[in-house]
Amino acid sequence: MDILNALVAFANFVLLPGMTYGCQLALGALGATLVYGILRFSNFAHGDTMAFGTMATILATWGLQAAGVSIAPLPTPLIALPFGFAATVLMVLATDRLVYRPYRNRKVASITLVMTSLGVMFVMGGLVRIFIGVDDRQFADGARFVFTAAQFRTWTGLGETVALRTAQVITIVATAVAVGWLHWFLTRTRTGKSMRAFSDNENLALLSGINPERVVMIVWVLSAMLATLAGVLYGLDKSFRPITYFQLLLPVFAAAVVGGLGNPLGAVPGGFVIAFSEVLFTYSFKKVASYLLPQGWQPEGLLQFLATDYKIAVSFAVLVLVLLFRPTGIFRGKTA
Amino acid sequence: MSQTTRNALLFLLVGALIVLTGLTQSWNAALTIVNMGLLSAIMALGVNIQWGYAGLYNVGTMGFIALGGLATVLVAMDPVPGAWQAGGLRILAALIFGGAVIAAAALLYRRLAGSLSGVLALAVLLVAGFVFYRWVLDPAVAAVEAINPALQGNIGGLGLPVLLSWPVGGLLAAGAGWLIGKTALGLRSDYLAIATLGIAEIVIAVMKNEEWLDRGVKNIVDIPRPVPYEIDLQANETFLSLVSALGANPASASAIAVKLLYAAMFLVVLLALIWLSNAALHSPWGRMMRAIRDNEVAAAAMGKDVTRRHLQIFVLGCAVLGIAGAMLATMESQLTPGAFQPMRYTFLIWVMVVVGGSGSNLGSVLGGFLIWYLWVQVEPWGTGLMRLATAGMADGSPLKHHLVESAAHMRLVVMGAILILMLRFRPQGLIPGK
């Protein structure tokens, strides 16, 4: 029995990656769920909005790097983020103005808006590919590790080891700040309260003099910023590739549905549920088990539930289970 | 202008565009567009059955098309010698056992819902079932994949005529559609969209990774063809004399002849499907479907089981998609799971349906041809346009190179713009449904 080594291995391969991925999904799901809460449709362009924001940030990063600006040991994309935010917010607001707004006065079925968001997805995805191409891009610079595996080993002398990457720390800190601020905004400020009122009961909100166009504008701004943040953090942690961001749509939606579509409070635990199920079901527990089980009981197989390629199947299975047993999500979301 | 003349003119326009391709590029290229147009029309028809007849939003068409492709492999490929003895039967047993465990779990859940002991029993059943399933499955998969891995390593098919795979593909896709419909229908419409998006990705993941089934990303090539090979035609005396009588080149004539044969077969399927769905739509069943589509609450009040009817029509639409998928794999005579992209096999089909006119079979056919034509042609147009736009820039400048290279992605932007504009300004499509 070697509980300490087992814990360290678990932390390195499950806990840290799961936390990081969970944060990224939570931010993505928050953006999608906010739009759903106010505008009442699933925005299929959300994955490509994430890609657009990340692309804008990468382009700004290149500019800053060329100008010699650096905040080492932190990665340059962090100071490029405001540019990414600005570009994405402008893009999304322009989209709303040109594409979605004409529908609002006509009270169309939500499915028309979903279809329209599909068109927006095409256009945004195409623009991203035109501007930056389809290749895999690493854009993180600065220090890669807060502490490396070798450092951890010399400190503790354990057989197993943990490496803490800068991107992981940044993701967790940035998510905590963003979610904390959003919570404060939605519960404490006048604008945030009016948004929640609008989401709860549109007619009542209109009666009490809330300006719907302003609420819609703010929700798009928030969603664009959250999407950009989620995309940049994911890209810093892994890499940027347009098709991967499109494929993030499913786990992001799964997280939002698990948390209750339209319910911002639920999106964060939803993100963690999806991320940890994906990591746990595709992690090989052989190493952890070999520390925990007595000598001679060593497992022969990998002790892996599913091959890593089936990550997407895991988030889908969680989604289906939630749909079957609790269609409104763990935390009640909007039903209509 | 009456509706009929307008429709005729629209079809004539698309026909003229394709003939123009034949005149300016080659007849081979034009026929390629026609064949893919026919297949696209069938796919659009499948989506139209779900969306136009019942308002069901399926964004996983890629998965159902891919399942149809899988059927061609399982039906038409020759069995791999020794694969069934090595582990094929054991794999089959494992899969049946897995299904039985899930069925037992569902039964148990219904019996014991709520109680703690029930939940525990369920958990024990599922975990033990999964461990046993993997214990049966894993060695069998390894044994099958070890057979001649450079060329085979899969269980192969049944060695039956490839045409049989078309209905089988439909059945396979219908089965998957039933599973997904059972879960997500009756919930809010967005959930069906998200669920179908997921099932499509999973089908592709399974087809990419389960090498014992279809060799995964190593691809299956040489699926038997229902039509003669070009090489055989070029050696055929009757064909050669016919070609020389027409004064054509045997090589290109044989390619065109093969494509024409495919076109004829696809046309038969397309017409049969249109006839069937029109007949269905004008039967009492079709009237009920339209009643449900137009007012679900009223239909439910008349005693119609809306969710059940929706499931029925969802499964039918999926079957049509599966048939189209099997036909596609037959025409390409290969299965490449890596080539299934949601842009191409899901969202493009949707553009076809919306542009053609939801609820209208004729519209789906028109949309299938028109949008496929644009999808093929916008790429060279975009590149040409970009070359023109960048003509003033120095040759060899990296920016110019990048711009010309990326012009290929113009078609995503164009398709998106078409979809948005149609939905906004002509939501009923080019040929409105009734």
What topology, given as strand order, has the largest sheet of chain A? 1-2
Largest sheet descriptor of chain B = 2 strands, antiparallel
Q: CATH top level of chain B?
A: Mainly Alpha
Coarse structural class of chain B: mainly alpha
Weakly predicted, low-confidence segments of chain B:
none
- Give a count of the beta strands of chain A, DSSP E runs of length 2 or more: 2
Sequence of secondary-structure elements of chain A: HHHHEHEHHHHHHHHH
CATH hierarchy: architecture of chain A: Orthogonal Bundle
The average pLDDT of chain A is 89
Number of helices of chain B: 18
Task: Give the % helix of chain B.
Answer: over 70%
Tell how many strands the DSSP assignment of chain B holds: 2
**Fold-level CATH name of chain A:** ABC transporter involved in vitamin B12 uptake, BtuC
* CATH-assigned fold name of chain B: ABC transporter involved in vitamin B12 uptake, BtuC
- Distance from first to last alpha carbon of chain A: 53 Å
Spatial shape of chain A:
globular
State which percent range the strand residues of chain A make up: under 5%
Q: How big a fraction of the residues of chain B is strand? A: under 5%
Unreliable segments of 5+ consecutive residues of chain A: none
Shape-level CATH architecture of chain B: Orthogonal Bundle
Number of domains of chain A: 1
Subcellular location (chain B): Cell membrane
Membrane topology (chain B): Multi-pass membrane protein
Organism (chain B): Shinella lacus
Keywords (chain B): Cell membrane, Membrane, Transmembrane, Transmembrane helix
